[in-house]
Specification:
Elements: H1 7-10, E1 14-19, E2 23-28, E3 43-47, E4 61-66, E5 71-76
Antiparallel strand pairs: 1-2, 2-3, 3-5, 4-5
Protein name: Flagella cluster protein
Keywords: Cell projection, Cilium, Flagellum
Length: 77
């Protein structure tokens, strides 16, 4: 996989749900592949925070990719 997930290159295929400066959340609209496993993800969370808590719900899995300056979390249903 690439060293860094480029959300700007895939932006036209995702819907921005939230961006508060520290945390960005996208919904995958067109099968963008997960930077960790390669499968299409449902939601993508990008954060520069050292720790983050989130609820993924039932029957869901998540993948985590650590980049130099941020954490990339993808949820899959």
């Amino acid at each position: 996989m690439a060293d860094r997930f480029d959300q700007h290159a895939a932006r036209h295929r995702m819907k921005l749900l939230r961006d508060d400066g520290d945390v960005t959340l996208y919904e995958n609209r067109e099968g963008v592949p997960c930077p960790a496993c390669g499968d299409a993800f449902d939601r993508l969370l990008l954060t520069e925070r050292g720790a983050h808590s989130f609820d993924v719900g039932e029957n869901a899995r998540f993948c985590v990719a650590r980049e130099e300056e941020r954490l990339v979390v993808c949820t899959h249903r």
